């Protein structure tokens, strides 16, 4: 995966895949949400930002675009991928709604989160409804590969939930010593929490485009590596990203005590800065001075370099997956561009 | 459906269907819960009451038994029905775990509810995991009708969630006037909340037993009417049931201000007792004297008789569904007996 300095054309290809997916997916998605009836459907429409006046922010739409491109890569059409694209948007949003309750996050896409606006019971129930609707969207399509895709969705959602549980569990672990979070544990968690759903988007789209299981597995790997590349990059941005571009507070992840890859890599590097960082976290990082010191120690211990290296390694794996699949040059370029808009976001 | 005074033999048949289903289902169910990993799997095992010492109360197992009997009724084996029986147990328990958060219920099966023991985040996540595992259990079976069954499961779960939302919404409505809950609304809610999952158990079991869609539809109707008969009976027991046998406080549903069928029927009967009852509820029913007065007014206005009549009508529909299907006499007797143990429970 290369990020050319003049990425205008590639970027437009990715944008166009997102745009094409959105135009195909949104009417079907709206229909699914409408099936939840006036009360729950209204809460669903609130979450998706579909207001009667046409305003409101929706998600980036990377996942449905990935499903559409995967279908096209294997010789199918964008329309073939729609049930998988709709399903992945439904489960992604179900996860967001439940995660906002769990993480006590008040805001989502610049608006009050569902639980904040409509209460926890409504947020639990609308999440459950979107979850089940995802299986309905796939299985109701009547596509001969819908059942195989739905089984992959069930497996992916198990991973997502288990990954979320592991991520929460990390926050209660000590910073140093035998019980501290190890790099391999972080990688499993990130693959499950972030990679599995991108893997489903790609493999599900490929299956509905007519791929067999072996080709779908290749798209699954592509999605996983894309998810891991994204997570590694997001972890770097969570410490050193420009708040004006990321929309997150400076040193945000350090302030929240998140066990992200740069931090775990720095703590386990076995260099003097590792020990100083561990001692600092154990005392508690509160002031802006301490936050900056922690960020500097993570960098000094090689945590930033390690995470950036991992992001590059996963992107190379994405490249290698794409190279192993014969596909039209335009589709290939659109994949590169989509990856760029996912990884390069906020930079 | 008849309830013979000497129901010993029939009761044993139903018991044996429950027992057979439990023996087939439990190992598969345990395997599904184990797939959630040590942390989430442990919470799942807590909910199901599977303790290392072998103690703990599990559910009644009516739904898996219904799936098994439906498969046998159409010429399949009990083993054929297992993926549907496992799926229905998984989603039923997912609903219980989430409902206990929503309803703020501290106890489930005599133990602290999952959210009370492990916290709301863990309870949300383990519910989500069981939900997705249900689709995995069905679709992973490789049964040629698994996809059709899973689509019915998705539709049923939408109904369950919408029914739950409607039931919650009823509690905020006025007792009398234009905005009061109508009998037809109650019936839709009860069919969705209680009937849809029993409908899936029966239709899913039939499909895996080899039935076509038309026969599965007949089992779907059977399950719906069984669910409605159960709900009407449960509503009567919720006011007039013997606390020693129901395990619920006397006049429990009246105390909680639940919009149950006897109450709605009494309020909308248009007799003098209806008006007195409406005025009493609007003022608020608090003391034991007022609770007894409310129960008497519900009965005087014909609410109890109406609900009992509805239960009988739905049981007659169950009978008519069963009569329309050719099946071994023993299976038919086991269905009657299962219905009896569902409807006749706590009496």
UniProtKB/TrEMBL annotation, chains A, B:
Any single GO BP term: isoprenoid biosynthetic process
- Pfam families attached here? polyprenyl_synt
Matches recorded under PROSITE patterns: POLYPRENYL_SYNTHASE_1 (PS00723)
Q: Which organism is it from?
A: Saccharopolyspora hordei
Q: Which family does it belong to?
A: Belongs to the FPP/GGPP synthase family.
Spell out the PANTHER family in the cross-references. (2E,6E)-FARNESYL DIPHOSPHATE SYNTHASE (PTHR12001:SF71), GERANYLGERANYL PYROPHOSPHATE SYNTHASE (PTHR12001)
Q: Which UniProt keywords apply?
A: Magnesium, Metal-binding, Transferase
Instruction: Tell me the classification of the organism that encodes this protein.
Output: Bacteria, Bacillati, Actinomycetota, Actinomycetes, Pseudonocardiales
Q: What is this protein called?
A: Geranylgeranyl diphosphate synthase type I
């Amino acid at each position: 995966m290369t990020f050319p300095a003049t990425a205008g054309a590639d970027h437009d290809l990715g944008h166009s895949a997102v745009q094409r997916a959105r135009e195909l997916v949104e009417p079907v998605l709206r229909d699914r949400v409408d099936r939840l009836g006036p009360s729950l459907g209204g809460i669903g429409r609130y979450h998706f930002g579909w207001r009667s006046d046409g305003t409101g922010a929706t998600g980036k739409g990377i996942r449905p675009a990935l499903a559409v491109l995967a279908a096209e890569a294997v010789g199918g059409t964008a329309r073939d991928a729609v049930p998988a694209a709709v399903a992945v948007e439904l489960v992604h949003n179900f996860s967001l709604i439940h995660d906002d309750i769990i993480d006590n996050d008040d805001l989502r896409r610049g608006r009050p989160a569902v639980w904040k606006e409509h209460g926890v019971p409504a947020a639990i129930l609308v999440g459950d409804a979107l979850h089940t609707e995802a299986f309905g969207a796939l299985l109701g399509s009547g596509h001969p590969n819908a059942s195989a895709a739905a089984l992959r969705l069930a497996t992916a959602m198990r991973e997502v939930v288990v990954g979320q549980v592991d991520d929460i569990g990390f926050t209660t672990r000590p910073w140093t010593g035998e019980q501290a979070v190890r790099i391999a544990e972080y990688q499993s968690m990130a693959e499950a929490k972030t990679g599995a759903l991108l893997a489903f988007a790609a493999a599900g789209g490929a299956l509905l485009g007519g791929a067999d299981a072996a080709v779908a597995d290749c798209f699954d790997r592509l999605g996983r590596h894309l998810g891991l590349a994204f997570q590694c990059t997001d972890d770097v941005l969570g410490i050193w990203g420009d708040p004006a571009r990321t929309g997150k507070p400076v040193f945000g992840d350090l302030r929240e005590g998140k066990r992200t890859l740069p931090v775990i890599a720095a703590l386990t590097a076995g260099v003097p800065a590792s020990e100083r960082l561990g001692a600092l976290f154990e005392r508690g990082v509160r002031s802006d001075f301490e936050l900056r010191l922690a960020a500097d120690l993570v960098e000094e211990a090689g945590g930033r370099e390690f995470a950036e290296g991992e992001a590059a390694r996963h992107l190379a794996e994405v490249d290698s997956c794409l190279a192993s699949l014969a596909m039209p040059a335009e589709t290939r370029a659109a994949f590169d561009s989509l990856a760029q808009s996912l990884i390069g976001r906020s930079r």
